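[job 4471] stage=fold_predict status=RUNNING
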Amino acid sequence: MTPETIRPIALAEIREARERIAGTIVRTPLIRLELGQAYPDIRLKLENLQPINAYKLRGAANAVAMLSDTERKRGVWTVSAGNAGQGVAYAARQAGVSCTVVAIETAPAAKIERMKALGATLVPVPYEVAWKTLEERSYPGVAGTFVHPFDDHNFIAGHATMGLEILEDEPKTVAVIAGIGGGGLITGVGSAIKALKPEVQVWGAEPETAAPAALSFSLGSPQVFKDWKASFVDGAGGQSMFPRMWQRMKPVVDGYLVVSLEETKRAMRLMAEKARVIAEGAGALPLAAALTGKAGRGPIVAIVSGGNIDLKKFCELIESVTP
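[job 4471] inference complete, writing structure tokens
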């Protein structure tokens, strides 16, 4: 399958996507995290409140809505650690389209069960196989129209709608931080932000155990992260930076912040204590990055990309945080 030619996401496309997905997604709130004057002014964009508890529904709803009748009849499939799979399955179910997910077998049980509940057929594979499938855009025995979970123009345009909401709700925003897995979220949000207010800084956040984007930025070209380790931050931090995604991200991202797993757990706990928000590891990365102070004093928008985490695991993680 030959990938589409890479081109910028136009503001008109983002606005059209917003109209297209309005009946499927939630316009999520932007709330101030009350931490006191010693901390940066941080706002949380609560994408964990989407119907699938993750932002991926935006891109999936737009991509599925734009399929031709022929493509719909073939059914759709994607590759996912859970959130993209839920998004595509949810959008496919609404459209009356069959859905298969090549799912990373170490995905949290909560995400696996949600994908099944949405009617998806699951094909469990190891992480390395899933990453290879994303590059090759094919998997033996899986048929249908492939919806790439990040390297897809329509998927990214759907995510970009979040950028419109952020600037409407907080026009004084000086920085936006998004976690990076494949790079679709930050490319989308960054495209909208830069089109409307180019002076706003767009930062990517990654865990120290999986930070190919930060490594690529420091070396000036897409890199493989050789010391990659699996962690509870399963929704972000890839093994490598896809060259096509590097090409998409470069014009709209200003820099990258790497945080420790301990800082991420602290951010998860802080959101639960101060805002009663349950965030998965990837959803807490931007807050952890904002708290380092490296993105300035604010207002900073930290995108809480999802909240799909087993509650037992969530409790174990936040209880393990050292005071």
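[job 4471] summary: The longest helix spans residues 153-169.
[job 4471] exit 0
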